[in-house]
């Protein structure tokens, strides 16, 4: 059995960010990671073309600038290597338990501690930090006959690199962020059929590789990296207006997307099939300069309808069209609104899954009623549609540190149900008029069980910082308990 102050579950950006902060403060902790290495999303996703769509110098920790990013947008392998270097630089290896899944986590009311079961034995902790990620479990669609497909079939987040794809007839199901990156990579060597249920709004990606001279300058003049990160932060915050429904900003961004489509797709029928019929920003806005050209080149067949059924190696579209393929790739997203780990966590009265039966709720997007001294990073209403999620993680980590200071003074932290309900209402009011709720699309930000926005934060990063800064302890019923100084970790 291991006894620690804080148990962290997950070793992606959120878990490692939390670990760094705790280590610097001298707090005792352990990190459980079910995989054999760190990296989270960037460990699991290795499909062709995988890369970040947030500028690389904003997609990293403020305390760990990286002068060696290869270009404006980092590849998945680069980001994973960045996280591995952080583990080494911060000497986190002794605190990591790789290949160790959290089997259950249960609150012990008598001792006021969390009891975690794992394959390596029990962990007892005063506080629990769930940094499990929201894009960890692939969503497999319920399609009649899917199990009859005889060839290789895998999700984009579980890419089978042993499958020979050159010259194969490949079907890709889905046109989200992963598909937009991987389809152009496949189109050069294979015959691709792309099943599109709903077209996406796509804007130019742009960007370029950094030269060796630029990378040397970043390394020798760290003030330049600070200025660049500050500029990228401001650009990201400015994008919020177009994503959240500001009329003028949305109209301008929509015009950019339509011009991009028209410039790259000359055929009217294909262009019409790729034009969304819902509000800009309702779904995640994608960045690509090579997706439309791949479809326009004739090397990709666009099936502008959903996959309805599978009969052996024949895929039947909702349009009635039949496509014979050798390989089936499911780029169908993740179980985002129903977090898989929630069934494993037992609080004072219920499991976290039961508490979230009508959609995820929290206070400050981090703490949850009925689950004392527990913190969820990158969970309810902590995602962004306009900037870097790492910025949000840093804000949450700073809030957790303040809460742990409060716990030192008052003991176990129990969230007032009134505070959680008020925060949930606050989110609902802020989201009510946005495209995510009114834009005429289905998106992964909204929980279909309640119709509430449960994934996205309906504001800027700056607004999130200000909201968490206003948390005075009254969420735990003790606004006057002493708290040591807060530290902001964003740009």
UniProtKB/TrEMBL annotation:
Pfam families: FMO-like. The keyword Amino-acid biosynthesis does not apply. InterPro entries: FAD-bind_Monooxygenase_sf, FAD/NAD-bd_sf, Flavin_mOase-like. SUPFAM superfamilies: FAD/NAD(P)-binding domain (SSF51905). The keyword Repeat does not apply. Keywords: FAD, Flavoprotein, Oxidoreductase. Belongs to the FAD-binding monooxygenase family. This is NAD(P)/FAD-dependent oxidoreductase. It comes from Microbacterium deminutum. The lineage of its organism: Bacteria, Bacillati, Actinomycetota, Actinomycetes, Micrococcales.
């Amino acid at each position: 059995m291991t006894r620690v102050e804080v148990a962290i579950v997950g070793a992606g950006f959120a878990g490692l960010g939390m670990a760094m902060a705790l280590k610097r403060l001298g707090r005792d902790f352990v990190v459980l990671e079910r995989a054999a290495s760190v990296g989270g999303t960037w460990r699991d996703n290795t499909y062709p073309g995988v890369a970040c769509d947030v500028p690389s110098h904003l997609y990293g920790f403020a305390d760990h600038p990286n002068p060696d990013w290869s270009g404006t947008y980092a590849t998945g392998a680069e980001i994973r290597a960045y996280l591995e270097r952080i583990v080494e630089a911060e000497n986190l290896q002794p605190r990591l338990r790789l290949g160790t899944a959290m089997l259950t986590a249960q609150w012990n009311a008598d001792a006021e501690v969390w009891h975690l079961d794992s394959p390596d034995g029990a962990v007892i902790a005063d506080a629990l930090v769930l940094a499990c990620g929201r894009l960890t479990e692939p969503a497999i669609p319920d399609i009649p006959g899917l199990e009859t497909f005889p060839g290789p079939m895998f999700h984009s987040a579980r890419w089978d690199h042993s499958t020979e794809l050159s010259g194969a007839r490949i079907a890709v199901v889905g046109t989200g962020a992963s598909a937009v990156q991987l389809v152009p990579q496949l189109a050069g060597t294979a015959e691709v059929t792309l099943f599109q249920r709903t077209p996406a709004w796509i804007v130019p990606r742009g960007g370029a590789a950094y030269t060796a001279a630029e990378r040397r300058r970043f390394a020798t003049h760290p003030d330049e990296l600070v200025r660049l990160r500050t500029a990228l932060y401001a650009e990201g915050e400015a994008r919020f207006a177009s994503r959240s429904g500001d009329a003028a900003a949305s109209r301008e961004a929509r015009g950019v997307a339509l011009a991009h489509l028209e410039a790259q797709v000359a055929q009217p029928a294909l262009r019409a099939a790729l034009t969304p019929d819902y509000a800009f920003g309702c779904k995640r806005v994608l960045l690509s300069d090579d997706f439309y050209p791949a479809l326009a080149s004739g090397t990709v067949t666009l099936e502008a309808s959903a996959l309805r059924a599978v009969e052996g190696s024949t895929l039947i579209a909702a349009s009635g069209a039949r496509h014979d393929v050798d390989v089936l790739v499911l780029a169908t997203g993740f179980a985002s609104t129903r977090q898989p780990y929630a069934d494993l966590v037992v609080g004072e009265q219920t499991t976290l899954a039961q508490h979230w039966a009508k959609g995820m709720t929290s206070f400050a997007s981090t703490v949850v009623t009925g689950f004392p001294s527990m913190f969820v990073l990158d969970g309810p209403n902590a995602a962004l549609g306009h900037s870097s999620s790492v910025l949000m993680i840093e804000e949450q980590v700073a809030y957790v540190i303040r809460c742990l200071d409060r716990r030192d003074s008052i003991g176990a932290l129990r969230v007032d149900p009134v505070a959680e309900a008020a925060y949930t209402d606050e989110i609902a009011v802020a989201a009510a008029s946005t495209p995510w709720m009114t834009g005429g699309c289905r998106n992964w930000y909204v929980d279909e069980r309640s119709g509430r926005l449960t994934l996205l934060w309906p504001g800027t990063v700056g607004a999130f910082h200000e909201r968490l800064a206003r948390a005075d302890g009254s969420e735990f019923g003790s606004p006057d308990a002493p708290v040591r100084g807060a530290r902001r970790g964003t740009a």
